[in-house]
Design brief:
Layout lengths: L1 H12 L15 E4 L7 E16 L4 E3 L2 E2 L2 E17 L4 E12 L24 E12 L7 E10 L37 E10 L2 E9 L9 E2 L8 E2 L7 E9 L21 E19 L2 E20 L6 E13 L5 E4 L6 E2 L16 E5 L1 E11 L10 E13 L6 E11 L5 E15 L2 E16 L1
Parallel strand pairs: 11-14
Antiparallel strand pairs: 1-2, 2-5, 2-24, 3-4, 3-18, 5-6, 6-7, 7-8, 8-9, 9-10, 10-13, 12-14, 13-14, 14-15, 15-16, 16-20, 17-19, 20-21, 21-22, 22-23, 23-24
Organism: Flavobacterium micromati
Protein name: Short chain amide porin
Keywords: Signal
Length: 459
């Protein structure tokens, strides 16, 4: 117990800070394990609380009551990350926490009803990341090349910058979710267990991994016409997946100690990158035609561009941030997943109107075979004060989706503003988002909206 108390005290007393828009933080909650500081541990803690007001899909009920709107507050993320550099070459990373706890769901397994283990209560902590890595070629040994090898439950999942996004410094309020195309099916919260290689060759950063996806066993619906076949996640004896991402960094070079890609540097760096990536998994989905089962590979590809630059007069401290990505997804015929973040709605069995194909609550067609184009942009407004109380960063995002399972393509947008109280370490974000409502594969009945205010803090 004394050792634990000493460790906690050391962590608190070693608060030095971080960057990304705030000069009051150095290296964060860090404490040395030896006298010269070559061995150390660093801890990062953060939480994101959401206040929401949303229009519900037709045919929704909450708590056994029919409704078309809902307001709530929930825990989007409560996380801790710790990594230890136990030698110059060897590092250990652990990352755990909870996600998506609302007043009615997101609690521990089996929680429901009323009482100490009622609906939405006492969610279980779990590991998001847990891996070890070894630096085979240190960057300072050869400035043109570096290489680290690692293994465990990891986030080096290739595909796109946004697939490996940090959740601490989004430009928008959150990721669009389709950037994590396997989310909670064949991965564990966007991670898989495997081995990876990472490093740099000049201005080219590379990430490759070889993983064992989590098993899936959904039963495909049997159809009689080949064109109507629908692939679902069913991997049988799961085969190994491969993933990779390559990014050329034209201007300032980004750190790659950890896999988490920064969403907005707030003008503290000059970044212009172009990247491309992939994810493949053999025989990962299945469909059924006339009771004959077919297996399908998952083949996912993406290309993206990221820019974060200071603009205007230096004393104004303005900056622009932009990101655009094109996804080409193939999960098998007519594969489609509907997702609603922190969805508090359930299906109303007594509803007699045209239901949303996506289901109840705020669910929408999110991931599927087809193409997605996503673009976001923001601007950090000027401030001549040395230490302003608030920095303001308006932003917008646009999404185009064309899924094979739906005859009509869709568009949607997000508009909002970050109010940066202490860089990314303490900020309030307000965002309004739209989503299309499909009532049939060929019919979009309209658009519904959701307004979210997020409180974020991290150390």
């Amino acid at each position: 117990m004394k050792k634990i108390l000493f460790l906690v005290a050391a962590l608190l007393l070693s608060l030095k800070g971080f960057s990304q828009g705030s000069t009051d933080y150095g290296s964060g909650m860090k404490f040395n394990l030896n006298d010269d500081g070559s061995k150390f541990m660093r801890v990062i803690a953060w939480n994101q609380i959401w206040f929401r007001s949303a229009e519900m899909n037709p045919g929704t009920m909450i708590g056994n009551e029919a409704t078309s709107t809902a307001t709530d507050i929930g825990n989007r993320r409560l996380r801790f990350l710790a990594y230890a550099q136990i030698s110059k070459r060897y590092m250990i990373v652990t990352h755990f926490g909870i996600n998506n706890q609302t007043f009615i769901n997101g609690g521990a397994t089996g929680t429901s009803g009323t009482g100490g283990y009622g609906a939405g209560k006492k969610p279980g902590l779990f590991f998001h990341d847990a891996w070890n890595e070894y630096a085979v070629v240190l960057p300072e040994k050869d400035k043109n090349f570096s290489l680290s090898l690692g293994g465990g439950l990891h986030y080096y999942m290739g595909l796109s910058r946004e697939t490996m996004a940090s959740t601490l410094n989004f430009l928008t309020i959150d990721a669009p979710i389709f950037n994590w195309p396997l989310i909670e099916n064949s991965d564990q919260f966007a991670r898989q267990v495997g081995v990876f290689a990472k490093g740099k060759f000049g201005k080219l950063e590379y990430r490759l991994s070889y993983n064992k996806p989590y098993a899936t066993n959904l039963t495909p619906a049997n159809v009689t016409v080949v064109n109507n076949a629908v692939a679902v996640d069913n991997s049988g004896i799961t085969k190994w997946s491969k993933a990779g991402y390559f990014e050329y960094q034209f201007l300032d070079q980004e750190a790659n100690v950890l896999p988490y890609k920064v969403g907005s540097y707030l003008g503290t760096k000059k970044v212009f990158n172009i990247g491309a990536g992939f994810y493949t998994a053999p025989d990962a989905t299945r469909s059924s035609v006339n009771n004959a089962i077919s297996k399908h590979d998952i083949n996912l590809f993406a290309a993206d561009v990221f820019v974060d630059l200071p603009i205007g007069k230096k004393e104004n401290k303005m900056a622009i941030t932009g990101y655009s990505v094109l996804y080409d997804y193939d999960f098998g015929p007519n594969y489609l997943r509907n997702v609603g973040i922190m969805n508090v709605g359930s299906v109303d069995p007594n509803f007699t109107g045209n239901r949303a194909l996506a289901g109840a609550g705020n669910a929408q067609p999110t991931i599927g075979s087809g193409n997605i184009w996503y673009t976001q942009a923001g601007i950090l407004l000027p401030s001549k004060v040395a230490k302003p109380k608030v920095r303001i960063q308006p932003f917008g995002a646009f999404t185009y989706k064309k899924f094979d399972a739906l005859e009509k393509s869709s568009t949607q947008f997000d508009l909002g503003t970050n109010f940066l109280l202490d860089g990314q370490h303490a900020k309030i974000t307000a965002q309004y988002s739209t989503r299309p409502v499909y009532t049939s594969p060929s019919t979009i009945s309209g658009s519904l909206g959701e307004f979210v205010v997020q409180l974020q803090i991290y150390l």
